[in-house]
Structures are given as C-alpha cells and as structure tokens.
Design goal:
67% of the residues lie in helices and 1% in strands. It has 73 helices and 4 strands. A two-stranded parallel sheet has the order 1-2. A hairpin with a 2-residue loop joins strand 3 and strand 4. The longest helix has 36 residues. The radius of gyration is 61 Å and the shape is elongated.
C-alpha cells in the first residue's frame, strides 16, 4: 500500500509539472488520480488505522516483535508522508479538508492512543514517533533493528505534515523552495512546525536535526532531514528562521550546498540554498557556534557567487540552460536575503558583487511583462544597494565594473513590440508561475520591482563617493566612462517627464506611479550633480589624480553621454522654462484661433517636480537649471561633436518637419533669453557655487562662456526672425511682429543684453541684439527698459565705460551711441525723468550723462568708423536732452531750486548745478555759441521757418535750456562765467528767453562788470527794443530786462554810464515811459477832496475800522488784477529813477510832461502802495534838481503840490495812520505782500513825500512854505494825538511788518524845525495843537523810547523826532512873542499836556501792558508820578544823558518854562 500511494503521488506531481499551465477550469474541475486515491483511503478508515499503528509501542526487548512493529510503522509513515504530500499538491483544497476531518474524527472517536492514557491524533503521533526514535538512536544506536529506516520514514512523514514537497529525482519544482502562499491549512502546518522545533532544534547536543544532517542517523536520513528543515523554515513562524540559524544547522547545510553544486544535485543545492537564504540573515557573532555559522555562511556566499559566474553557453541544451538560469535566480534571491545581515557585507562585497555585476551585464535586456526576470534583477540590485553605503564597499563595487552593468540594465528595457523576440531566449518551456505573471497586466512596476529606479538608486549611492566616481590606476572604469551618464539621462528623459500627449513613438508605456517619477527626478539630478562637482573646478597639475588631463577626459566622456540624449536636454530646458513661470510658456492665440507659437511644447514636457530639496538646492527646478548650466559650460570648454549636438538641440536647430521655422525661432529666443535672465544674479543665483574656489572659476570662466554662447544663439534666432519679418507681408507680418515683440518684452531681452554689454567678451553680440531690437520696436521697448532699475543703471554705466581693448573699441563706441539714443528717446517719451527719480538713480544719471557729453570729443578715434550706422549721432546733444528730462522731475528730497522758463521747469540742486557747470560749462557754452553762429551764417534749419518758430527752436534747444538753468543757480554761475557762459547767455537773451535774462540779473548783482564785458546790457536793450510778442510772457521778459538795467545803473558808476551811453538806451527809456503811462489812465471823476476822510471818524467802531482798512488795502493793492504788469511798471520806475542820476537823461525827464503827470497821478489816485512808492521815489530823485531844471509845465511848485497832495491824502486817511506807533501781541489777519515790497506802507510813502518837500523847501515861495507848514503841523499833531488817545494799542501788521511811523515823524519835525526859524511860518508852528503834541511827546517819551520793533530800528527815528521836538520847543520858548502867538502861557499849555498824558498813562496801566511798557513803568508810582509831569520828563531826559542835544535842549526849556 505504501509503495502504491507513493508512486501515485509522484506520478501526479510529474503530470502537474508537465501540464502546470492548464488551469483547473480548463480541466473541467475534476480531481487528480492521487486525490481520488487519498479519498478512497480516507473512506476506508485509514486515518484511525495509521494513527493506531504510529502510536503502537515498540517492544525493543523482543527483537522479532520490535522488527515487525518498526517495519509496520515505516510503512505507515510512508503512507502518511504520501497522503500529506497529496494534500499539499491539491490545488482544489478537497483533499486537505477531508484528511484533517478524518484525523480529527479518529482522534475524537478513540482512534489514537498516546502514552500514559493520553489520546493522540495522527500528526502528533508521527511527531512523537520521530522524537522517540531520535532519542533511542542517540542513546542506544540502531543495532540490529531497522531504526534508521524508521527514522527516515518518520522524517518523511513529519516533513509532509509540516508542508514539505516531494523530493528526489526530477519530481520537484522551483516553487518547492520558496515560502508558499497562506491557505486554510497554514495554521495546521505552523502548529506542527512549532511542535517539531521544540525537540528537533536547540543549541546543545540534544538537538536531533543537526545530527541527522551530518549523517548520525544514517546516510539515508540526511535528505529527509534536509527536507524537514526546509519545511520548518517555509511553513513555520518567523522565529523558526532565527532558531534554525542559531542552531548550528547551517554549518552542515553549507557543506551540502558545496557538494551538491559539485555533483550537480539540483534538489540538495536548491534546498540548502533556501535554508541559507531564510536562516542566514539571522546568524550573528554572539557566540562560538555563531562564529562558526557565520564563517560557513561566508563560504556559502562564495559558493553561491560562483554559480553566477557559470557561463551560459549558446550551444547548451535548453532545459539545462533554463535550469542554470533558475539556479542563478535562486542564488540572487539568497544573496539578497543574506545582504540584510551586516556581518556578511564584507564577504558579499568581495565575492558576490563582482559576480552580481557580471550577471547584470549578461542579463541587461528585460521586458516589462517578464515579472520573474524583473524580480531577479531587482534582487540583484538590492544586494549591492544594501552594502554600498559603506565607502569602501562602494569603491569596490565601482572597481568591479558595476557602473557599466547598471547602465546596461537601465537601458536594457525592451519595447513591448520586441518582447516576443526577447522572450524566446527562455525556451519553449516556461515556468507556470512565470506564465501566470506574464498574463497579469500590471499598471506599472512598484518601488520594489522597479528595475530602473533601483539601478538608479545604486548609481546614486556610488556617485556620492568621490573615489567611486573616477577611474583607478589599474584601469578600472569610473562612472564617467561606463555609460552611466547616458543611462541616467535617458531614464530622466523617458521616465521622469510627464507623458507627451502626442503619439507617434510607438505603443505608450504603462502608467507609472507619480511618486516613482519624483524619485527618479531627484536621484537622476543628484547623480549628475555629483559627477559635475568634479568637473566644475580645475584641479592643480600636481593633483594625485593626474590633474587636468584626467579631468578633461572625464568631461569629454560626460559630454558624450549627454550629447546624444536630445530628449533629456529638451526636458531640462523645459524645466528651466517652467522654473521661472510655474507653468508651460505658451504664446497668445492669434485672431484666427490658431496657436502662433509655443515655448514649452517644442522642448517637450518638463521633469516631474516635487516640493522639497534636491542635491543641495531648495527645489528640483533649481537643481535642473544648475545641471543645464553645467552641461552648457562643459560644452563651451570642450570641442567635440557632442557639444555641437547639445547646442543644436538647445537652439532648436534640429530638423523637425512638423514644426515651422518661425515657431522654432521664437521658442529658442525664449529659452536663451530666460536662461540669460537666470544667470544674471552673480551673488545668490541658482547656478552660483557655494564654495569660494568654484565660485571664482564660475564667475571668471564658465559664466562668460555660457553667456556668450547663449547670446550668439539668441542673436542668430533673432536675426533670422527679423529677416523673415522684412520679407513677410500683410497679416502674417503683423502677427509675426507681434509675436517677436511679445517675446522681447516678456523675457526682458533688451534689458538683459544691456546689462551684459559691460563684459568685453559679450559686448559685440549683446549690442547687436539691442540695436536690432531698437530698430524695429524702439517705441514699445524703451519704456520697459527705463522702467527696470538694472537696465537703466546699465545704460548709464555704459555711457562712459571703456570696455575691452582695441578690438572692442568699435563695439564700445557703438553701444555708447546707441544708449544715448535710447535715453534721448525715453526723454522725448517723458519716461526717463520719472523713472530716474522713482528708481533713485538721479545722482548716477547726472554724473553719467555729464561725463558722456565729453567722451566723443575726447576720444579722437570715436569718429573713425566710417561705416558705422550711428556715426552721425550728436552724442552731446542727446545727453543734454536726457539731462533735461532728469532735471524736469523734482528730486525726492525736494531741496532743489526751481528754474522756470518758457513751458518747462527744471529742478537742480546746488550740488548738481555746480557739478554740471564745472564739467559741462564750457561744452554747453560752446554749443550755444555754435548754434547762434550757425544761424547767423544761414546754416540753421530754423532760419527757414517763421520768426516765432525759429525763436522757439533756439530757446527750446537742450543746450540753451540747460545753460539758462545753470546760470540761474548762484553756485554754478561762476563756473559759467569762466567758460564763456555769459557770452552765450547774452545771445540767448536776445531771443527774449526769460531764464537767461534772469540769470544775467543774478550775475549782475554779484559783479556787474562781467555783464558789461560781454555786452549783456546791449542784448537786454535789444530785447526791449526789438522783441515782438505780447501777453504775460512778454511782460515778464521786459520786466526782467528793466530790472537788469536798473541793477547795472545802481551798482556802479561804470554800469550806469554804459547803459546811459548806449544807443539803445533812448528806446528803452521810451518803452519805460510808455509802460508807466499805459498803467495810469486819467480818472476825471475822482478828486483829491473825495478821498479825504473826516477826522471825526477816527473814533469809529474798531471792528468796522479794521474791515474798512482791509477793503481799502485790497483794492489799492491791485485794482486791475494785473500783478505782472504792475511789476513791469515798478521796473520801469526803478530804471528811470537810476537814470535820473545821469544829467542828460534827468534833463530829458523834466521835459517829459506826460511822464511827470503820470507819476503825479499815481500819487493822487488810490493806487497800489508799491506803485505809489515807486512814483514818489522817482519824483524825489528829480526834486533836488527841480528848481534849476524843471520846465514851465512842471515847476518846483508843482512838485511841492504833488508831495503835499500825497501828504494831505495820507492825512485824510487817519484810520490808516492811527495806532501806528504802538506794539501789540494780538494776532490779526495778514495780507500777502510781495517779498520785495515788505518795507513799503502808508507811512513810508508819506515819509518819502516829506523828504521830497525837504529838497524843494528853498525853491518854493513863502506862501507855499506856509501851506506846507500847516499841512505838516496837522500831520504831526495827528500822529501824536493818535498815539496819545488810542483806546487800544495795536500794531497793524496787516500792512507789513514795518510801519515807519518814526521815519514820518522825524521827516515832519525836520521841516518844522526849519520853518520855526522863518518869521512867516513861526506863527503856524506855534499853533496850539502842534505845540501840545510836541509837549505830550516829550512827557510820554518814556513810552515811545521803550517801543522797539524786532526787525527795523524805528525807535531810532522816534528818538530823533524827540530830539527835534526838544530843539523846536527850546527855540519857541526862547522867543518872547511865543505866548502871545499861543494865546496862553506856557504853564497853561504844559498843564493841559500833562493832564492828557496822565490820562494816557492811567489807561495803559489798566490795560494789558507789553514788555517794553512794563520796563518803562517799573519803579513809577500811580497818579503823581514825576514822569507824568513835563518837568519830570525833562529831568529824566537829562539824567539819561543819551544825547547831548537832548540834554542841552531840555535844560534850556527848563530855564525858560520852570
């Protein structure tokens, strides 16, 4: 029975091996013959029978019975082994379920018996039998009993119970040596394994299994023991692996492995190898036995590695070849498992790595659907991956040629349409498991079986070790020459990019997990960065690595690896484009709905990116850009075919039939421009190395080379695109032009090229790009250029920088002139000035433009390029236009002086004006002189136009505008004067340019002689005499001219004589007279008497007085509203006043009746105070000569009448004069007064009129003198009355800060003192009102003296007036008839004056007093104060002794009156 069951089982397994590819469904689901036999046995109650036989006690003392029992047990164990073997092979699961049900039923029904009355089932009985037999064998040996046969049978039975497969011969499969998939019987087998391990394993001599494996139980028990050990490892719990590994069993297993390999015993080899695979990782070095086990495992590593080196001959039998491949696969898996044990890494590195490398090299081609081979390759790669983190192991792996193997594996994947050809190498017979896996359609490899990804990880680890990257002295290849670079680039281009939407490359590959793509991106880029790090810095010649020679070869090898990978290069460029924008750059869609051009699609998809660092960079985008730069730098420093291939790919010069040339050009322009923009940052840029040595090499060598090549490519594509635009027509030309303009703007091409022009090696291509772009798109591009700080700064820097040597002189000159054009154009557009101010480049702009004006004139070779398109450009003129634009915007600090002229305003600070004048003063002056010289010769184009247009052309010229602006600055004027600036200004002044005239006026104030030297006064006179025009500009120009002439006449006698003797002076005088007359139209309806205001109105309400005063002043200030023309009249009066000092003109003025009448009318009418002041000043200048020179139409008496009329007019306006002598802290409303008229008010004008009367006193009749005396007496009395009896002491600041009341009082008293000596006028002087006023002024002198203005010393005049009062009173008191004229005695007059003065002082104490008054009142008692009396006042004056005349007069008065 045992033999039949065993044969049936073997036959069933053999049939399954031959037809394993047919599924149960294809076999109509019927069970096999072995299963039928098993079911028949179970139906015949064989399970209880087997359990009873196994459990039967062996009577060893009776040999015959013992032999029979043993043989019966042997048969039963063999039947049990076959039964459980059939169950293991039953895929339907029917047999297993029935068997265990039968066993359980038998145990429950008493079919099993154990020792000491315990019941046992069939499985536990077999295990117990194995245990008892092994114990007996250990103690007593076999003797004459067939115990070895029983041991063998028990091992077979227990092995099958634990899940072991059949053994021996050819009836086994590769899956028999792997851990099976769990099913419903797994737990039963695991329990059996645990029970067996309890007595079969151990670390002492009682362990049976190790003894069995070494043959202690007979040779026939070795193979079953090996089978049982394998079953325990396969089906037992995971701790069984550790128990087996630490039991010492691996020592004999290793010997079995060696012998099996030598003898060619497949089962023994595979079984031993599986045990080593699963248990070897758990061997450690904790004990002696472990050390022996570890040594044996190391031997096993060498044995297994030797399998990988067995040659697969092409003429070998297919079955044998397939078996060898399976053995190699099992060896790989075993090495993979052993590589998890760090104690074995040295052995693996020494023995296994070379073998694995050789295996990978021979099995480099693989199919995505060949899951089994892919698993083997992944296992082989993981063997190396686990050990190479140690630098020594990595170097050893690299020296073993692993780089080439990995490169071939990475590129060995075959397309699906080629998989059939590759699959034929395995022969017609395929593993059923392999076939089932092939039929499964996976979405893509996972991280565990991704061959390319794991190979890349290994390469990445190798590349991280510097020694592993390079060759050794023995000739072993490093990573540069083994094809790894090409493999990695190919993988990045194919696996790390998003799938292209377009088809055409064959069947699409399976969908790959996005996470795997990210990993490939990171690993691939970091691998390339590792290799590039050795090539970016030059090695010293004495480097042990042989310095630059080896580095050069490695660089060539690297370039060779990259050069052919066009897809990889394109994806790097696409990633770089994606780096700056965050998305693929696609052009705008045309009006027709068709796409004009696309940037990213032509380069293909970019790398799949992720968030996180990569190779020391903050993101993979930056890493990819750095790799692209490094490759580009290598292609610039080396000369090979692959370098040109790289640049053709970058510049889109490949033949691509489906893509238009214009589209490729636009795409290449975008790539080059964006790459240049990325490389502009030389401090913190993406590609800037971190260490100083590499950074220096980068800045000095690599960066210029790459930039130059990019500029050449950019120039090539732009030139071709521009040439195509010239040939295009209609809508196509417009669309292409818009596309190119959009590219230039979007990628800042002109700005970048301008910045790069500063480098000598890049000057020529960069300048050509800028020039070409400006020729087509200057209007559109210039605003964006000046709006960018870097490009605008580059424009200024390039104006004066001498770039390169003689070979670059032409390009340097050309770019300078082109920059001048750009800046000038920006100035014309109105964008330069605001941009300079906004970007804070004003200082740099002024310095650069100022210096650039002189560059061409200083460089003699600047005009030597006859074929230069820019040779006719006037660089100084363009620079001046740009300067005008810069100065047209006020600086941010707002400290500059505003210079107005025409329709523009310039803002120059003193420092700027001084710097420009000192540098360009002579240049600007020469340019202005040359312009006028050219016009005088008829060469100026403006001479052909109308006069007004020609004038505008001259005055709007930038050199003229800047000259006038500089001349208006006091700091810059001296430098202009040294460099013919005034001569040029005088010519400009002839054009009526206001700013030039004002500048000459400023120069005249400092030194009139310099104006006379250049005949500036003649130019000004010509403007007055000949300049056409009208309106405010004409008035302003004429005003400025008259002011210059007035200043010239006032400063020096030389200037006055020069102006007076000039031929044009007569015309100027006539013009001035005409201006005065036009401003004074007769008004017959108004008379002097109508302007008088009754004195009784003096005590009106204060608020009403203030309002009336304000209204009158507003009306008088500018009755016509034409303030500009009033300034012209003032200038005319000033000019005539100064000329009146010249006899010839003075005589002429006396003959001008209309002039004198107009001047007098201005005094008589309610005109602005400024005009009244100018008029009275003019008349006062003529008054001293009136007696001798005056005509009959305007004699001295008329002068006296005019002055008296002005004084009488002022007297009528008592509301305007009252309160004029006191100070207040009360704030009142103010009226804006011209700065040059701050000292002019009612009192001052009246004081001038009184001074005119002083000049006429001796030239008028007695009657007229008496009239004057009456008028002045009334005026002085009114002044003192107002000062004495005012209820409120206010200082009217609304008319200006100086009232000049002291001046008026002094001038009046000066005439009155003189008149008091005349008998005819003495009676008038002795009027009661005047005398009372003088006495009160003396009594209140302490108040008047304490009153002081902070700005003008009006106190001095009041002191002088007091002195004159003292003299006058002293003179009057000495006259005997004085009391008769008064009609009262002096005592009575003095008493009345004291009473009034006391009331005034009493009011002042009760009201708010001011500091000056408080000082005057300190120490004075109320009421009877001595200073309130006339005598007390005189005594105080004498005690002060401030003036000898006052003391003497006071003493005289005391003698006469007291």
């Amino acid at each position: 029975i045992s033999s039949v069951v065993a044969k049936t089982w073997r036959r069933s397994r053999q049939n399954q091996a031959e037809d394993d590819s047919i599924s149960m469904a294809d076999k109509d689901g019927s069970p096999s013959q072995a299963v039928d036999l098993l079911l028949s046995l179970l139906d015949s109650a064989s399970a209880p029978l087997m359990a009873r036989i196994v459990s039967t006690k062996i009577e060893y003392h009776v040999q015959s019975k013992a032999v029979g029992t043993i043989l019966l047990k042997v048969a039963a164990c063999e039947i049990v082994a076959s039964m459980f073997g059939i169950v293991r092979d039953d895929a339907s699961g029917i047999a297993g379920g029935r068997l265990y049900i039968a066993i359980d039923d038998a145990a429950a029904g008493g079919g099993g018996y154990g020792g000491r009355g315990q019941r046992q089932d069939l499985t536990t009985g077999c295990i117990s039998l194995l245990q008892s037999t092994s114990v007996h064998m250990q103690r007593y040996g076999g003797g004459d009993l067939p115990l070895p046969e029983l041991s063998r049978a028990c091992l077979l039975a227990v092995g099958s119970i634990c899940g072991a497969a059949i053994f021996g011969g050819k009836v086994f499969k590769a899956s028999d040596f792997s851990i099976p998939v769990e099913d419903e019987l797994t737990s039963r087998r695991r329990d059996a394994c645990v029970a067996v391990c309890a007595f079969m394993m151990g670390r002492d001599s009682s362990a049976a299994l190790p003894s069995m494996l070494v043959g202690s139980y007979g040779e026939e028990s070795v193979l079953p023991a090996l089978r049982l050990a394998l079953a325990l490892v396969q089906n037992g719990p995971m701790n069984v692996h550790a128990q087996v590994g630490q039991s010492g069993i691996l020592i004999p297993i290793t010997d079995i492995l060696k012998n099996a390999l030598i003898k060619g015993e497949r089962y023994l080899f595979s079984a031993s190898l599986s045990l080593i695979r699963y248990c070897g990782p758990h061997v450690s070095t904790t004990g002696t036995s472990d050390s022996a086990s570890l040594a044996s495992i190391r031997d096993a590593v060498r044995t297994v590695s030797s399998v990988l080196l067995i040659e697969e001959r092409a003429d070998a039998d297919e079955v044998q070849l397939d078996t060898l491949k399976q053995l190699k696969a099992e060896s790989i898996f075993a090495l993979e498992a052993l590589s998890t044990n760090a104690s074995l890494w040295a052995a693996i590195s020494q023995d296994a790595v070379p073998a694995v490398s050789q295996y990978l090299l021979e099995n480099d081609t693989w199919d995505e659907d060949d899951v089994a081979k892919r698993a083997v390759l992944c296992a082989a790669l993981r063997v190396i991956q686990r050990i190479i983190p140690l630098p020594s192991h990595a170097v050893a792996a690299a020296r073993a040629g692993l780089g080439a193997s990995l490169a071939k594996v990475m590129t060995g994947k075959v397309a699906k349409d080629e998989s059939g050809d590759m699959g034929g190498t395995s022969g017609k017979r395929r593993s059923p498991i392999r076939e089932r896996e092939r039929r499964q359609r996976m979405s893509g490899p996972s991280d565990d079986d991704d061959v390319q990804k794991i190979a890349l990880e290994v390469l990445h680890t190798l590349a991280s070790q510097s020694a592993a990257r390079r060759n050794d002295e023995g000739g072993a290849l490093g990573l540069y020459h083994c094809g790894a670079v090409s493999a990695v680039c190919d993988l990045l281009g194919s696996r790390a990019t998003a799938p292209e939407e377009s088809s055409g490359s064959g069947t699409a590959s399976p969908q790959i997990a996005h996470g795997s793509q990210e990993s490939i991106t990171r690993l691939g880029l970091e691998f390339l960065l590792y290799l590039l790090s050795d090539l970016e810095a030059p090695l010293p010649p004495n480097d042990p690595y042989n310095g630059a020679e080896n580095q050069r070869r490695e660089a060539l090898a690297f370039v060779e690896g990259v050069g052919g990978q066009n897809r990889f290069v394109r994806c790097l460029v696409a990633t770089m484009l994606l780096t700056e924008t965050g998305q693929s750059l696609v052009s705008s869609v045309s009006d027709g709905g068709e796409e004009g051009f696309a940037v990213a699609p032509l380069y293909g998809p970019p790398l799949v990116l992720y968030d996180g660092p990569c190779g020391g960079f903050p993101s993979p985008q930056y890493a990819a850009t750095s790799v692209l730069f490094s490759i580009a730098s290598l292609c610039c420093t080396n000369d090979s075919k692959d370098c040109e291939t790289f640049w053709r790919t970058f510049f889109m010069q490949e033949e691509r039939s489906l893509v238009g040339k214009e589209t490729k050009q636009a795409t290449a322009v975008a790539a080059c421009a964006l790459f240049l923009n990325v490389l502009m940052d030389e401090e913190d840029g993406v590609c800037v190395p971190s260490d100083s040595i590499r950074e220096t090499y980068y800045i000095d060598t690599l960066l210029p080379l790459v930039r130059k090549r990019l500029l050449e490519g950019l120039l090539l594509n732009i030139s071709e695109a521009f040439d195509a635009l010239d040939g295009a027509e209609g809508e196509m030309s417009a669309s292409a032009s818009a596309t190119m303009l959009s590219l230039l703007q979007q990628f800042h091409v002109p700005q970048t090229c301008l910045a790069l022009c500063a480098s000598p090696g890049l000057l020529e291509p960069a300048s050509q790009i800028v020039e070409s772009s400006m020729q087509l798109y200057s209007e559109e591009l210039i605003p964006s250029i000046v709006a960018d700080k870097n490009s605008l700064k580059a424009l200024f820097d390039l104006l004066n920088r001498r770039i390169g040597g003689v070979e670059s002189k032409r390009a340097s000159t050309q770019i300078r002139r082109l920059n001048c054009q750009i800046l000038s154009h920006a100035a014309d557009q109105g964008t330069l000035g605001p941009a300079v101010d906004r970007l804070g480049l004003r200082t740099q702009a002024v310095a650069a433009l100022t210096a650039a004006c002189l560059v061409d004139s200083e460089d003699n070779s600047a005009h030597s390029f006859d074929d230069d398109d820019l040779v006719d450009i006037d660089v100084p003129l363009l620079c001046l236009r740009s300067l005008i634009a810069v100065f047209s915007v006020p600086p941010k600090n707002n400290t500059s002086a505003d210079v107005e002229g025409g329709d523009f305003k310039l803002h120059l600070s003193s420092a700027e004006a001084l710097a420009v004048a000192s540098t360009l003063g002579k240049k600007i002056s020469d340019m202005v002189l040359a312009k006028f010289m050219k016009r005088s010769h008829g060469d100026d184009e403006s001479t052909d136009s109308e006069d007004e247009d020609a004038h505008k052309t001259i005055t709007d010229a930038p050199e003229v505008r800047l000259l006038c602006a500089l001349a208006s600055n006091k700091e810059a004027l001296p430098d202009l004067c040294k460099n013919n600036g005034l001569q040029a200004l005088s010519l400009v002044a002839t054009e009526g340019e206001l700013s030039a005239i004002e500048a000459m006026h400023e120069a005249c104030k400092d030194d009139p002689s310099i104006i006379l030297q250049v005949e500036g006064h003649i130019s000004v006179m010509n403007v007055l005499a000949n300049s056409p025009g009208k309106g405010k500009i004409k008035v302003a120009v004429d005003t400025a001219c008259l002011e210059i002439l007035s200043t010239l006449c006032a400063e020096t006698e030389q200037g006055r004589l020069a102006v007076a003797s000039a031929e044009e002076c007569i015309l100027c005088v006539s013009y001035a007279v005409d201006c005065i007359q036009r401003g004074c139209e007769p008004d017959d309806k108004r008379s002097d008497t109508e302007t008088m205001i009754d004195e009784d109105e003096a005590e009106a309400d204060e608020e009403k007085e203030e309002k009336i005063d304000m209204d009158l002043q507003t009306t008088a200030a500018d009755p016509s509203g034409d303030g500009e023309y009033r300034k012209l009249q003032l200038a005319a009066f000033s000019f005539l006043t100064e000329l009146s000092r010249v006899k010839e003109h003075r005589t002429n003025f006396f003959s001008m009746q209309d002039l004198l009448d107009a001047s007098a009318a201005l005094l008589a009418k309610s005109e602005p105070l400024s005009l009244q002041h100018a008029s009275v000043k003019f008349l006062c200048a003529l008054a001293p000569y009136a007696a001798d020179t005056a005509s009959e139409h305007f004699p001295a008496s008329k002068f006296s009448l005019v002055f008296s009329s002005r004084i009488s007019l002022e007297g009528s306006k008592s509301k305007k004069i009252k309160r004029s002598g006191f100070v207040t802290n009360k704030k009142v409303s103010t009226r804006k007064i011209d700065p040059d008229q701050l000292d002019i008010n009612e009192n001052y004008v009246c004081a001038l009129a009184v001074s005119g009367l002083k000049c006429l006193y001796h030239g008028i009749t007695s009657e007229e003198q008496l009239t004057v005396a009456k008028l002045l007496s009334s005026q002085f009395a009114r002044l003192v009355d107002i000062a004495s009896f005012s209820a409120k002491n206010k200082y009217r600041s609304d008319r200006g800060p100086h009232e000049h009341s002291g001046v008026l009082a002094y001038n009046i008293m000066e005439i009155l003192v003189t008149l008091s000596r005349s008998p005819a006028c003495r009676e008038e002087v002795l009027s009661d009102r005047l005398v009372s006023a003088m006495l009160r002024l003396i009594i209140l002198s302490d108040l008047i003296e304490g009153r002081k203005d902070d700005i003008n010393d009006d106190e001095l005049y009041w002191d002088a007036a007091l002195s004159l009062c003292l003299q006058c009173v002293s003179s009057l008191t000495c006259w005997q008839g004085s009391e008769t004229s008064l009609g009262r005695t002096w005592h009575e007059v003095i008493s009345d004056a004291e009473t009034v003065a006391g009331e005034v002082k009493s009011k002042k104490r009760d009201s708010r007093q001011f500091p000056s008054m408080q000082r005057a009142h300190s120490g004075i008692e109320d009421g009877s104060s001595s200073t309130t009396t006339f005598r007390g006042a005189l005594i105080l004056i004498m005690e002060k002794r401030s003036c000898a005349i006052n003391v003497t007069a006071a003493r005289s008065i005391l003698r006469q009156t007291c």
